[in-house]
């Protein structure tokens, strides 16, 4: 959905409001004051992945919930946000770790994706990483 900009009638303050294209483009603040719409050049997809704060899970859920696409698109977005958190923190994604810990407490087993990708025992090793899988006939 497009983002519309409104300016306070007396002050030099602006607010961005997400509205449908067919909505009436009027904005009232909490005190009932009507703000003036600022006309801008149209933009394509104002809510790209880069604009989502990876640590604000509530806002990310709101934005991705309004998008059209497949469940795979949602998973891709979730993975990208997780990678951003991991890069910024310099270690494992804390939100993902919390999810895995909660899953294990609730279900008494580790989540499928929280299990080790390689097991070594008695001189043998099994590698479960996706880069080592072969396509079968």
Characterization of the model:
The protein has helices at 57-66, 71-89, 94-107; strands at 3-7, 14-18, 27-28, 34-38, 118-121, 124-127. The protein has 137 residues and is α+β, with helices and mostly antiparallel strands. It has two domains: 3-38, no CATH class; 49-120, no CATH class. The strands form two sheets. A four-stranded antiparallel sheet has the order 2-1-4-3, with no helix packed on it.
Could you give a short description of this structure?
This protein has 137 residues and is an alpha+beta fold. It has helices at 57-66, 71-89, 94-107, and strands spanning 3-7, 14-18, 27-28, 34-38, 118-121, 124-127.
Topology overview:
Blueprint: E1 3-7, E2 14-18, E3 27-28, E4 34-38, H1 57-66, H2 71-89, H3 94-107, E5 118-121, E6 124-127
Antiparallel strand pairs: 1-2, 1-4, 3-4, 5-6
């Amino acid at each position: 959905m497009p983002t519309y900009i409104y300016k306070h009638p007396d002050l030099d303050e602006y607010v961005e409001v997400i509205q449908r294209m067919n909505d009436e483009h009027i904005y009232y603040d909490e005190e009932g004051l009507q703000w003036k719409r600022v006309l801008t050049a149209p933009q394509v997809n104002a809510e790209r992945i880069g604009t989502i704060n990876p640590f604000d899970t509530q806002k990310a859920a709101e934005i991705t919930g309004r998008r059209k696409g497949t469940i795979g698109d949602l998973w891709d977005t979730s993975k990208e946000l997780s990678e951003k958190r991991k890069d910024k923190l310099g270690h494992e994604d804390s939100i993902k770790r919390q999810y895995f810990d909660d899953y294990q407490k609730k279900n008494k087993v580790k989540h499928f994706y929280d299990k080790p990708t390689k097991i070594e025992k008695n001189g043998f090793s099994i590698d479960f990483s996706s880069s080592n899988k072969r396509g079968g006939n």
